[in-house]
Amino acid sequence: MSPHLSPRSTELRRRFAEEARAERPDLAQLCLLLAAQGDPSLDEAGMDAVQIELDELAGRLPYRPASPGAWATACAELLGARTGFHGTPNDYQRLESSLLHEVVRRRRGLPILLSVVWLEVARRAGAPVCGVALPGHFVVGFGPADEQVLADPFDGGRVLTGADAQTLVAGATGGPLDPSMLRPADPLDVVLRILNNIRAWAATRPERSDVALWAVELSLLLPSHPARLRYERAQLLVRRGDFVNGAVELEAYADVVGAVDETAAESVREQARAARAMLN
């Protein structure tokens, strides 16, 4: 991890890594620990307040609706219509749209963060609910696979027909909806996708390389992550002027790559030598 981390940031990362390796990771807690890394003003009381609000919202849902469709309708009525959770195109331009405490406060966010709200509220109320990671647009699913009802929290919880889901997938991929896309999303896959969104946001804002760095470093704390993230972290360190640690990371990544592609590994080693040369 980055040198010179504050004690608070170090402790947040320790807890994040510990929760990610729990037998049943707590999605809301992981999202809040992530958010506290992005917003230093989010303290323990603030994280507890979000959990309490999610509990309170769950308590306002009807007692065990009879069907997946009824659950979807009840959540849309409460979270979409009555409390105003939804998304707008402008939300894609805001880092806050990926931070759970801000999404709960503003009632706005990216599809995946709004889905986290739906998931946590519905789960606490006893709903048979899961996240569904459609390409380019995260939604929630109620009920078992053979009678699953999809809802789109970004659109206020609108229940999706099969044709609606097909349209979302076609818009993102140009291809058809594959049944495998409807599988329940694992909590850690949800968190990695949130971090990917944050990295994408920061990538278009070179002045926010600090955000890109913590997002990469949290991703590396997850039990399963793309190896190439180590290379991305090394590049960020060099870009931020930490040439020594960047070079060390580049060399370590080159050793990994060298097992399968020595030409690529030598290119990375050359980058490491160039980073060290910047110290002269």
Description:
The chain contains 12 helices and 4 strands, in the order ααααααββββαααααα. The mean pLDDT is 93. Strands 1-2-3-4 form a 4-stranded antiparallel beta sheet, with helices on both faces. With 280 residues, it is α+β, with helices and mostly antiparallel strands.
Q: Tell me the structural class.
A: alpha+beta
Counting DSSP E segments of at least 2 residues, the number of strands comes to 4
List the strand order in the largest sheet: 1-2-3-4
Could you tell me the strand content as a percent range?
A: 5-15%
- Helix tally? 12
Shape: globular
- Low-confidence segments: none
Average per-residue pLDDT, rounded, comes to: 93
**CA-to-CA gap between the ends?**
25 Å
Order of helices and strands: HHHHHHEEEEHHHHHH
Radius of gyration from CA coordinates:
21 Å
Characterize this entry briefly.
This protein is of the alpha+beta class.
Please describe the topology of this protein.
Elements: H1 7-20, H2 27-38, H3 44-59, H4 68-82, H5 100-106, H6 111-124, E1 129-134, E2 137-142, E3 149-152, E4 158-160, H7 162-173, H8 187-203, H9 209-221, H10 228-239, H11 243-258, H12 262-277
Antiparallel strand pairs: 1-2, 2-3, 3-4
Helix pairs in contact: 1-2, 3-6, 8-9, 9-10, 10-11, 11-12
